[in-house]
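Let us practice reading a record.
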Amino acid sequence: PPYRAFVGFLPDNADEDMIGDFFHGEGLDVLDVTLIRHQDTNRPKNGFVEFATREDLQKALDFNDAPMAGKPIRVDIAEPRPSRDKGGF
């Protein structure tokens, strides 16, 4: 299964490389980073980081409230996306 973490409260200059390097620099194996940006400002809003193992995901949770570029970030387990059941007529 994908071992994904939600990351939020990102610094304004955050990009995929900065986020990946943040966790990789702590010895965690990052497979993918997806960054969500504000539609109007293009500033980073939040993102998702996929880790290679469950253990790396667990370790990543220890970085909740850790500073990234001087700003405390939020790290949590990513919830699966709800199914988009159209349920139409």
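A brief commentary: The first helix runs from residue 16 to 24.
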